[in-house]
Predict the 3D structure of the following.
Amino acid sequence: MVPAPRLVTRRTAVAWIAAAVAALGAILLQASEPDPTVLSPPRLEAVGHLPPAPGAIAPPPAAERPRAPASVLTAIPGDRELLWTERGSGRVRRGTIDGDQVSGGEIVAELAVRGGAAGGVRGLAAAADGRVYASYVRAADRRLVVAEIGLPRARIVWVGPRAGVRRVGGGLVALPGGRLVLAVGDQGGAYRARTSEGVAGRVISLDPDRGPRQVPRRRSRGWHDPTAIARARGGRLWIADRAGGPDRERTGRGDRPGLSSVASPFRRAPVALAVSGDGGLLVACGYLSGRLDRAERRGELPATIPQVLPTRCRYGLAIVGDRVLVSADDGRIHDAGTVEDLRRDEPLRDGTAAG
C-alpha cells in the first residue's frame, strides 16, 4: 500500500508539467503575434467622431450602382495580364493589359459563393509558377475557403471558419517561396482576435499542396477586416485594415509581429491596397471615400497618415509595372496614370468639396 502516494505524486507532477507546458505555449504564441500597436492620431472615444475623408464622394444610389463592378484586381507576375472578380459573385475573369486599356475578360472560374457584399470572392493570388488561387465564402456552408482555380474544377486548399455578415476579411497573396498568405477578419468580435486559439483576426500562411485540413501558420493577429492586403518586394506584407464599427482603420505590416500600425484620422473604408515597385509608396482604394489615398513608406512604417488624392476609386486597385489601374463608380477598369503621377498629386484637404 506504500506505492500509492508515490503514484499519485507522479501523476500530479505530470499534470503540473503539462499545464506548465500549455501555459508556456500560450505565452510564446502571444509573444509571437501581439496585437498591432496603433500610432498617431490619438484614439477617439468612438468611430462616430471620425470625419469623412477629404473630398469623399458618397456611393451612388442603389439603383445607379453597377450590377457587377470589377473588384479584387490582381496582376499576374511576369505577364501583362490582370485577374479580377465581379463583386459579390463567384465569377473570376482574366484580361490583357494593352497600353492604358484592359481587353478581353474571359471567365476562368465560376465559384459557388454566398452572394452579397460580405460574400463572393474575397481575394485573388497569382503565384510565380502560374497557379491562381481564390479565397471566397462558400455557398454550401458559409465557410471562408481557399482554392486553386483555373482548373477543370476548383481544388480546395484550406477550409476556414464560418463567415459572418461583417468583417469577413479574406485578403490573399502569394509569397515568393510558394506559400499563400490569407488575412482573416474577426467577424465583428475583436475579442476573438485576442485569444490564442482560432484564426479570427489573424494573418495566416498556407501550403498550397498540404490539403484542406492543414494547420495554418500564424503570422500576426489583432486585425479587424483585412481585405486590403499587398505584398512588396521580398515578400513584405502590408495591410490597410477596414475595421468598421467602433474600431479604427489602420495601415501597417501584416507579417512582422511587434511592429506598429498608423491609424487614419478619417473614415475611407479601404477595400484594396497596392505597393509601388520600389516599395516606397502604399496606395489604397476607399469604398466610402470613393478615392485613392497614398502613404509614403520609410523603414517599417508608413511615414505619413493616408493622404487622399483626386483620383477616383471605389471597388478595386492594382499597380502593374508603373501603371495604376482602378475600378471606380462605373465598376469598370480604368488606367489612373503612373505611380509618379500619384506621387506628384496634391492631396485633398479638409473642407474640399466632393466632386
In short: The first strand starts at residue 37 and ends at 39. The radius of gyration is 22 Å. DSSP finds two helices and 25 strands in the chain. Helices lie at 3-32, 339-344.
